[in-house]
Amino acid sequence: MLVGDARFDAIAGDVDPALRSEAADRCATLLVRGPRDDEEGAVVDRVVRLAETEGLDEIAELWAGAPPDSLAGCLWRLYLLRSWVYADPAQAALEFDRGRCHVPVSEVVAGVTDPPRPEDVQRLADAVLRGIRVGEFADTLFRASAFARVTAAGRAHSDGHSDGHSDGHRDGHRDAGSTPVRDTAVGSTYASDLSAARLLTMAEQLEGAGRLELAGELA
Q1: What is the rounded CA–CA span in Å between residue 211 and residue 139?
Q2: Are residues 201 and 136 both part of a single domain?
Q3: Is 138 inside a domain boundary?
Q4: Could you read off the pLDDT of 172-190 as tens digits, one per residue?
Q5: Of 102, 109, 105, 113, which Cα lies nearest the Cα of 196?
Q6: Does residue 92 share a domain with residue 198?
Q7: How many CB atoms lie within 10 A of CB 176?
Q8: Could you give the number of structural domains in the chain?
Q9: Contact 157/118 with Cβ under 8 angstroms?
Q10: 77 plus 59 within the same structural domain
Q11: Same structural domain for residues 88 and 181?
Q12: pLDDT digits (tens, 9 = 90+) for 74-110
């Protein structure tokens, strides 16, 4: 099924869920595997612009319900990571820097300054997303997984003074935070621990998807 403009516009509307799911899967395949002609290339460009022009909710309409071991599910998690970094780059840099003290930093996310500046982490997120359209998709997934894993460690070791975020839902699709509840025994917060666990789950899902991609089983 080719997802043209008319069918693409219908995705966010009141259409058959099966049709919407099929269209979402097709869009994900075009993004990752590449277009075969100019018409499919135009669809790819439009999907990429969605996150910038329409926001994350439009992407959620396409991919949020997709399983983590699917191309669509991988794209949702990659877009979510980048959107979170851009929404709060200072906090992302702080948590990434803190996490490097607690877990080994994979060479695939090495290279940022020490300590990382907000713009360094933004560039890292951009580099991960560019991997969707250039290079090996497995490398993109492993790089995103490594970034999420380091950041999760930093969030788990939060000092309890970071700003709260809206509570998460649907398999960690939203950043968990809410009002921090101080746990003086471990020096973190209930909210940061919960959010870190969800981010770690995402890291594990992306790593698992990367292995499937290497085996030729990710679709």
Answers
A1: 10
A2: yes
A3: yes
A4: 444 433 333 333 334 455 5
A5: 102
A6: yes
A7: 22
A8: 2
A9: no
A10: no
A11: yes
A12: 988 988 888 888 889 999 999 988 998 888 776 566 5
Please tell me the distance from the alpha carbon of residue 119 to that of residue 107, in angstroms, as a whole number: 19
Global pTM value: 0.72
Is residue 68 included in any domain, yes or no?
Answer: no
Task: Single out the residue in 23, 38, 63 at which a domain terminates.
Answer: 63
Q: Report the alpha-carbon distance of residue 172 to residue 9 in Å, rounded.
A: 27
Distance CA 93, CA 19 (A): 40
Question: Domain range for residue 89?
Answer: 73-214
| DSSP calls for the chain | ----HHHHHHTTSS--HHHHHHHHHHHHHHHHH--SSHHHHHHHHHHHHHHHHT-HHHHHHHHTTS-TTSHHHHHHHHHHHHHHHHHSHHHHHHHHHHHTTTSPPPGGGTTS-SSPPHHHHHHHHHHHHHTTTSS-HHHHHHHHHHHHHHHHHHHHT--S-SPP-PPP-TTTTS---SS--EETTTTEEHHHHHHHHHHHHHHHHHHHHHHHHHTT---
Q: Which two tokens stand for residue 52?
A: 């910038």
Report which of 84, 90, 124, 81 is spatially closest to residue 106, judged by C-alpha positions: 124
Q: Return the sign of the alpha-carbon dihedral for residues 2, 65, 14, 56.
A: negative
In a domain, 219, yes or no: no
- Which of 44, 63, 82 is the endpoint of a domain? 63
Residue 9 shares a structural domain with residue 98: no
